[in-house]
Automatic annotation (TrEMBL):
This is Hydrogenase expression/formation protein HypE. Residues 38-150 form the PurM-like N-terminal domain. The gene is hypE. It comes from the Bacteria. Belongs to the HypE family. Gene3D superfamilies: PurM-like C-terminal domain (3.90.650.10), PurM-like, N-terminal domain (3.30.1330.10). Residues 162-313 form the PurM-like C-terminal domain. Coiled coil: none annotated. GO terms for biological process: protein maturation.
Amino acid sequence: MNDDLILLGHGSGGKLSHQLLDELIIPNLSGVPAAGQNDAALLNIGGVKLAFTTDSYVVDPIFFPGGNIGDLAVNGTVNDLAMMGARPLCLSVGFILEEGFLKSELARIVISMREAADAAGVAIVTGDTKVVPRGKGDRIFINTSGIGAVEHSLSINGAAARVGDKVIVNGCIGDHGIAVLSAREGLEIDSGIKSDSAPLNGLVTELLPLGDALHVLRDPTRGGVATTLKEIALQSGVTVKLSEENLPVNAGVKGVCSILGLDPLYVANEGKLLALVAPERAGEALAIMRRHPLGKDAAVIGEVTESSAGRVVMETMVGGVRGVEMLAGEQLPRIC
């Protein structure tokens, strides 16, 4: 294989993505060390603490059960800010449209973006639109950037996990990836699977009173829960041990994954967060999540067991233990 080629796997959020970032992009652009690579950059401008993030969306198909590329873009950027404990303030939106794209479909998308922004309490304040010739794009790509206010002194980041922390997820995993895959492939699945795309800033606001007990927040999007926890383990230098029997996965997602040979741990989510919380406050964190509409199926799925070079292991339902690594290739391309 030609090592000079960009592959779909380089956009998976997994091992190839990290190699591309670590070997080429980050050294030449910023030099930010691995411990500082989080969902958003933290900035201090004139004594004002801000979080800043950007993301691009190329999901295929652009309309899927539970959402579309527009509200997905808004929610994804809002969530990246929220994972730093920031209060999202405003967004920019950039459209790249292919010649021949329907205005009626663009209208559906921009209306859904407006509705998603209103639901999250953010303003869309600036943007840009470009059109490429027919056949030179794929209908529509969207870039969104966001700014949020950091109104506390907590240190919430991927390098802050500590031995003893409990790992909590706010609900069932894999819904978004399977909803998009089903729509893309025309799977006749009568299971009601919908994308979990949603803004998580309201839920995070309710978790912030946990104070110094709230160590890490991450939304497990591309690469799923497995890849995200591996990133945290590497950043923090710890071992995370998961419990397979405690993983919340709805029956429809389990069924599709079983048929197609997919692992829900690696399937993308767009309305889920992982919280690593000190053990003495974990019960309180779980209760807060379960009281929130986006956390009724929240569960403790693991814990940080020891300092290490960055490991994730799974205690299986038959009593064994297996290693969990980052997504190696591209399990589901064009998922966000």
